[in-house]
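Consider the tokenized backbone below.
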């Protein structure tokens, strides 16, 4: 290549890069100012659809989900039919579609899947579930036609492994009922059945054709690859040369545990992040479990990276109960931290600080998700980085010790609030045991306590009357985050 060609290519590349950056900026602007507001108004929170969805149990939560699911199902049905002339061809097509749909299900790291697709955990889990159901439907079509044509002979190796694969699929579907009550058992059963399904399918598909081999290899590679990435992430986060591994210490506050973690490898922490935590000292099985918790508070080093983080844990019946029963208040324990994950890492949800007015509603332990946003907004305000002029938090206590678990952080926040931007209103229902009078507390009396149940609609309407700029409403009113 002569020098003038190199010269032209270099200049053309620089010009192309500038144009690409401009386009990327335009897309981002369009997304933030037009596409996302339109999506929120007409799809995510479409009022007419919300009332229908609430009354019909199996309908998806938002309109976008319904549209995507309709597109997915109708598209698959079309592929089921195109070019299919007889029943054996229909059975083969269904088998191909079952195998093809199986591939994305083997991406075994939910948090990374959420990160790559930029969707919420619940949407990711719905996508996973819908694809799983499609695999089962295709397998049913395939199996029904084959059995009707050939009968079922379990002495035949192909039939036997096909039957085993069907049992695995049914188990995968049914074991979902364990998810809420026996999460760890569900997880192990789900993974075990998914792996055994691959083995059964490998034996069932005979002769293995080029495309079926490729699809099976893709399943194995996705599973192995995502597992490996997870192992590398955990090692990276927990092992740093010359530094101690992550250490945790616990403070019990009634029925809530404050977990303090010292991080060997700090990172710049953002509101909305969570980590997956394992503390082996909680019990032998705890080494193989990791549980998600929101980062409620953090302390930075001089470079602005979080060196220590705090979590608020509400004990349930498994790992979290063992934390409370087996670990000693104030003592240090080895911890394994995996993360960070969460909305802040998706980069598609817009910034809370872009809104003039932020209104948060929460109940009980849900405060863990609200505090980090207030912290970040107040810090951003001091650094001149956010537009927010008013922040209101309305929090209804669920248990007697809710307030004491978060008190120090709330008081710290109001004392940082030099411009009186932050308003905290706590509802302390009379049904809770510990008495608390209606009063004002905290620096400049900025925390107001009312001893009654919250009237959420009234609070929202009152807030809307004082609206400054665009108002963002954050929160979920139930005991779970
Ligand atoms: C994104 C996210 C953030 C969360 N943040 C907090 C928080 O800041 N503070 C807090 O107290 N709780 C939080 N939780 C809930 C917390 O993860 C569970 O309470 C905890 O894992 C229960 O552990 P356990 O063994 O005691 O559960 P169990 O008593 O066995 O089950 C209680 C509930 O927790 C669910 N659960 C159990 N293990 C897991 C797991 N590994 N992953 C997901 N769900 C599980 C079960 O399905 C069940 O619904 C969060 C959950 C999620 C999904």
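A designed sequence for it:
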């Amino acid at each position: 290549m002569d020098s003038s060609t190199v010269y032209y290519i270099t200049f053309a590349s620089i010009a192309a890069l500038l144009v690409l950056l401009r386009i990327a900026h335009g897309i981002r602007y369009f997304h933030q100012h037009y596409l996302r507001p339109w999506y929120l108004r007409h799809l995510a929170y479409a009022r007419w659809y919300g009332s229908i969805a609430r009354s019909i149990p199996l309908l998806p939560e938002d309109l976008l989900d319904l549209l995507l699911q309709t597109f997915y199902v109708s598209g698959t049905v079309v592929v089921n039919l195109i070019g299919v002339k007889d029943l054996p061809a229909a059975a083969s097509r269904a088998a191909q579609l079952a195998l093809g749909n199986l591939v994305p299900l083997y991406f075994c790291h939910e948090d990374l899947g959420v990160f790559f697709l930029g969707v919420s955990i619940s949407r990711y889990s719905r996508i996973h579930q819908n694809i799983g159901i499609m695999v089962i439907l295709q397998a049913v079509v395939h199996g029904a036609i084959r059995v009707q044509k050939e009968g079922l002979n379990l002495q035949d190796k192909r039939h036997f492994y096909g039957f085993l694969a069907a049992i695995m699929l049914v188990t995968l579907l049914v074991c979902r009922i364990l998810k809420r009550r026996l999460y760890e058992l569900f997880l192990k059963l789900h993974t075990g059945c998914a792996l055994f399904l691959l083995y059964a399918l490998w034996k069932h598909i005979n002769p293995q054709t080029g495309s079926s081999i490729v699809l099976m290899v893709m399943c194995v590679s996705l599973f192995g690859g995502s597992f490996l990435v997870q192992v590398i992430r955990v090692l990276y986060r927990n092992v740093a040369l010359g530094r101690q591994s992550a250490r945790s210490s616990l403070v019990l506050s009634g029925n809530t545990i404050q977990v303090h973690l010292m991080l060997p490898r700090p990172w710049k922490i953002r509101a909305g992040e969570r980590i997956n935590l394992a503390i082996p000292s909680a019990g032998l099985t705890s080494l193989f479990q990791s549980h998600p918790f929101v980062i409620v508070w953090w302390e930075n080093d001089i470079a602005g990276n979080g060196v220590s983080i705090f979590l608020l844990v509400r004990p349930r019946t498994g790992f979290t109960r063992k934390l409370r029963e087996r670990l000693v208040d104030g003592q240090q324990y080895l911890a394994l931290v995996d993360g960070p994950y969460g909305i802040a890492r998706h980069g598609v949800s817009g910034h809370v600080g872009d809104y003039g007015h932020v209104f948060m509603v929460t109940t009980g332990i849900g405060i863990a998700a609200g505090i980090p946003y207030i912290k970040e907004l107040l810090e951003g305000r001091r650094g001149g980085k956010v537009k927010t002029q008013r922040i209101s938090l309305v929090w209804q206590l669920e248990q007697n010790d809710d307030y004491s678990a978060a008190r120090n952080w709330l008081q710290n926040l109001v004392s940082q609030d030099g411009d009186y931007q932050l308003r905290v209103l706590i509802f302390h229902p009379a049904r809770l045991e510990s008495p608390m009078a209606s009063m004002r507390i905290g620096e400049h009396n900025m925390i107001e306590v009312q001893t009654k149940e919250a009237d959420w609609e009234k609070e929202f309407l009152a807030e809307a009357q004082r609206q400054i700029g665009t108002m963002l409403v954050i929160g979920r009113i139930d005991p779970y985050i």
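Residues 121, 179-180, 183, 274, 291-294, 311-314, 316-321, 365, 368, 481 surround flavin-adenine dinucleotide (CB under 6 Å).
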